[in-house]
Amino acid sequence: MITPKEIKDKAERRYISFLQSLVENKPFEKLIIRGDKSYTKSSLSEFEKEIQQIVSQSKEKNGFGYTLEFQKVKTKSLGIQDIPISIFFETEKDFLKFLGKEKEAELFKKSLIKIIEAFPELKDWIIKNPIKVVNNQLEWESILNVCRYFKQNPKSNLYIRELPIKVHTKFIENYQSIIKELLNILISEHINSEEKEFEKRFNLKYAEPQIRFKVLDRAIAEKFFSGVDDIAVPISQFETLNLPIKKVLVVENKTTLYTTLTLPKMNDTIAIFGSGYSVCNLKHVHWFSNLELLYWGDIDVQGFEILSQFRSYFKQTKSILMDFATFEKFFENDLGNQTNIFTSLNLTDSEQKLYEILKTNNWRLEQEKIPFDYANEYFDKENFTS
């Protein structure tokens, strides 16, 4: 026989559909709980105990909760007995009080009115997400204030904490997930749909990545940066630079960036700290398109995957010091990190061959293990210097 706990579990599973019916303004209908259990007790005392348990939590005993309808049934072992054949909640109050959700449902109704009055277009979202409404019961006034601001100012170009909205300073960050869902509906025509970060998606200022670069041509450093040759600027500013350079050397880590200071003089050249997979920050630097691009990364699977990534933005990219001869000369049996990438890469035949060797053996040669003299000799030999 079904137990009171099983009745409650089944009733709780119907709660979401109840909330959805409130959004759709449907009147409460008798909510039937299926028993779905046969009566197999062979002992009359056991049978009576189960009946007492189920009756003890019923409306008949408590004044609220589920109603039981009994019918005399002839059982195989116990003869004729009164057995519950129907379990149902007759009223909304019975249902909610049994679940302990009277206050929660009342708050939901109030939140529902607030949201629909402010933005009728969110009705379908509420129907799909009633629990999200419940989970944010105490914050809807503030959430709606944020939505109103964005509705009126879809392209404010301010930092989050600059927004003139009467909410506490961290509110938008704390409730970013639900606000994002709502704004996707409310200002869909103004969002940057390809962006996932909140600030970028909704036209806000954000803490931009810094591009760290070294000017390897002393004349350019003197003319454009007062002799400063180690510089970091926000990506948006880097994208607008107009320097008389012909060559860009992208290096994977900071140690190698420092090494570039020891290179022979390189006219018309800058070296950039790519910071591993952060080379994605460079993908919109359109003035790279007509330059000679050199990529110098670790000789491991990640190094070649980053090279492939950067080459997908700029197909003219050439790898340097990432060849088998360099690897064989300085490899010290270091192990690398396994890769989860199995798609084809933007590599030359020789790069692909070395990549497969590294991947199979999980080998690695870090940039900083290549001596300065060897790097300098390489640059001289390949005519990268002036």
**Count of spatially separate domains:** 3
Number of helices: 19
Proportion of beta-strand residues:
5-15%
Proportion of residues in helical segments = 40-55%
Q: What does the average pLDDT come to?
A: 89
Question: Multimeric state of these chains?
Answer: single chain
- What's the level 1 CATH class of the largest domain? Alpha Beta
Spell out the key features of this protein.
386 residues, alpha/beta, Dna Topoisomerase Vi A Subunit, Chain: A, domain 2, 3 domains, 6-stranded mixed sheet, 3-stranded antiparallel sheet
Describe the structure.
By secondary structure, the chain is an alpha/beta fold. The protein folds into three domains: 4-100, no CATH class; 103-201, no CATH class; 210-381, Dna Topoisomerase Vi A Subunit, Chain: A, domain 2, CATH 3.40.1360. Helix content is 43%, strand content 14%. The protein is built from 19 helices and eleven strands. The protein has helices at residues 4-13, 15-23, 44-56, 59-62, 92-99, 102-118, 123-128, 130-135, 140-152, 171-174, 176-186, 198-201, 218-225, 235-238, 254-259, 301-313, 324-330, 349-361, 372-381; strands spanning 31-33, 67-75, 79-89, 210-215, 230-234, 247-251, 269-273, 292-296, 318-319, 334-335, 363-364. The strands form three sheets. A six-stranded mixed β-sheet has the order 5-4-7-6-8-9. The longest helix is centred in the N-terminal third of the chain and has 17 residues, at 102-118. It is elongated. The mean pLDDT is 89.
